Amino acid sequence: MPKLNTALVETDWLEENLGDGSLIVLDASVPPVVPGYKSINSEESFSAIAGARRFDYDGVICKPNSSLPHMLPTAELFQEEVRKLGVNSDSVIVVYDDVGLYASPRAWWMFRAMGHAQVAVLNGGLPKWIAEGRNSKDNYTAAEPGNFIATLDENLFCDFEVVLEALYEPSCEILDARSEGRFKGLAPEPRPGVREGHMPNAKNLPFPEVLAGGELKSVRELEKIFSSLAAKDQKVITSCGSGITACILTLAANVTGYENLSVYDGSWAEWGLPLKLPVVTD
């Protein structure tokens, strides 16, 4: 049985272990809404890594009837849906997406939040896998039900009340993964009715800055980026537009050695609503 000691695996590692019965590969793709990012799959042409199953947190494995997009579901719902994918408590899980490295980090963090440590993101995702000529199929693989048990760690995702308190806490840093224009309130928000700007004391780290060619930058490069924003003994809360690209920052911080990490689940889709939450612009 393969073992994971990192949150990020390369295509070579996945191909070497693809035939192991304990390994589960999950496609966690979500259509990108950020300009400049595009899926290699379409209605006319579809590919999946051989043996992959569909992990749909945008429409299935999410909080039902929520006004906010793809919110974390209860442990009970997560467990029920993940068991349908054949995931067991001892499964080794690799998640990927069809953009490169975009939506898959959120699936990784969801599994971590539900108590499963043996999960990693495929660096470069489906585009790299296909470009290297590795084994792919035109459909997903069916599976027998698994015995996965979800145990929610509420510290890994947080709500606006936690973020509000953290804004003025020296032991915490809030990193916003949106573009500089949106962060400063100089570019319009894509969601109707959402205010422009950012949280007081938050710092801006647009998620493309931790990526290079659809892959995560090297640990050395990431250390240089994060060391200027947060100390490793601080708690780092990430936020973005709707809780997807914030997880890219969380993944990057994790592989760089940061341990006290949390994702603001509602992100700007919630904070930017016309409520009483504080917003500043530049």
Labels describing this entry:
5-stranded parallel β-sheet; 9 helices; alpha/beta; 282 residues; Oxidized Rhodanese, domain 1; single chain
Radius of gyration: 18 Å
Strand order of the largest sheet: 1-6-5-2-4
Number of strands: 14
Shape: globular
Oligomer: single chain
Tell me which CATH architecture of the largest domain applies here.
3-Layer(aba) Sandwich
Overall pLDDT level? 97
**Helical proportion, percent range:** 25-40%
Which structural class matches the secondary elements? alpha/beta
Kindly provide the name of the CATH class of the largest domain: Alpha Beta
Overview of the molecule:
With 282 residues, the chain is α/β, with parallel strands linked by helices. It has 2 domains: 8-137, Rhodanese-like domain (Oxidized Rhodanese, domain 1, 3-Layer(aba) Sandwich), CATH 3.40.250.10; 157-271, Oxidized Rhodanese, domain 1, CATH 3.40.250.10. It contains 9 helices and 14 strands. The chain has helices at residues 11-17, 75-84, 104-113, 125-131, 160-166, 180-184, 219-227, 246-256, 267-271, and strands at residues 8-9, 23-27, 48-49, 53-54, 92-96, 119-122, 136-137, 157-158, 172-176, 203-204, 211-212, 215-216, 235-239, 261-264. It has a 5-stranded parallel β-sheet with strand order 1-6-5-2-4. Helix 3 (104-113) links the parallel strand 5 and strand 6. Helix 3 (104-113) crosses helix 8 and helix 7 crosses helix 8 (246-256). The termini are far apart. The model has no long low-confidence stretch (mean pLDDT 97).
